[in-house]
């Protein structure tokens, strides 16, 4: 297994008042820089969105990983979250803590056996009929 973190990751984090939340992250690592995206369900009762999307930006140095997750759009009690964790020896798990002002919890990400794919269909590129 490669030690590059690029790929799809299945994750969980513990959110006070909501319990365990599952998410899917797609990470891209290049030269120690990390980018990507995260999709997770909204756990707040007053949230009008069923799913939250966010982007991540950060870095990796050896086994240490840190990134900031920015919700798009921000709101519903969500904006930016700082994540700091450790990658295991075979780069299949990342575990650590997330932080918000006045709040924090744990997270775990496990490399998925799924691969990230771009999907295009012939239907999506046809010109509309007039």
Describe the structure.
The protein is mainly beta. It is 3% helix and 62% strand. The chain has one helix and eight strands, in the order ββββββββα. Strand 2 and strand 3 (33-41) form a beta hairpin. The longest helix is centred in the last third of the chain and has 4 residues, at 122-125. The protein is globular and about 40 Å long. The protein starts with 6 loop residues before the first strand and ends in a 5-residue tail after the last helix. 20% of the residues are buried.
Outline:
3% of the residues lie in helices and 62% in strands. The protein has 130 residues and is mainly beta. The chain has an eight-stranded antiparallel barrel.
Task: Count the E strands.
Answer: 8
Characterize the overall form. Answer: globular
Arrangement of strands in the largest sheet: 1-2-3-4-5-6-7-8
Q: Report how far apart the termini are.
A: 51 Å
Query: What is the SS-derived class?
Result: mainly beta
Q: pLDDT average, as an integer?
A: 84
Which bin fits the share of residues in helices? under 10%
Query: Radius of gyration, rounded?
Result: 16 Å
SSE pattern? EEEEEEEEH
Q: Report the β-strand fraction as a percent range.
A: over 45%
For the sheet with most strands, the description reads: 8 strands, antiparallel, barrel
Count the helices. How many?
Answer: 1
Poorly predicted runs of 5 or more residues: 118-130
């Amino acid at each position: 297994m490669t030690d590059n973190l690029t790929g799809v990751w299945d994750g969980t984090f513990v959110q006070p008042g909501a319990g365990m939340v599952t998410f899917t992250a797609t990470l891209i690592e290049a030269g120690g820089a990390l980018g990507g995206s995260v999709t997770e369900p909204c756990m707040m009762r007053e949230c009008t969105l069923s799913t939250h999307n966010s982007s991540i930006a950060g870095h990796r140095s050896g086994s240490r990983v840190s990134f900031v997750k920015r919700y798009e759009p921000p709101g519903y009690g969500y904006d930016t979250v700082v994540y700091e964790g450790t990658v295991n020896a075979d780069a299949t798990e990342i575990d650590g803590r997330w932080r918000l002002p006045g709040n924090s919890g744990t997270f775990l990400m496990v490399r998925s056996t799924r691969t990230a794919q771009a999907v295009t269909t012939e239907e999506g590129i046809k010109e509309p009929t007039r």
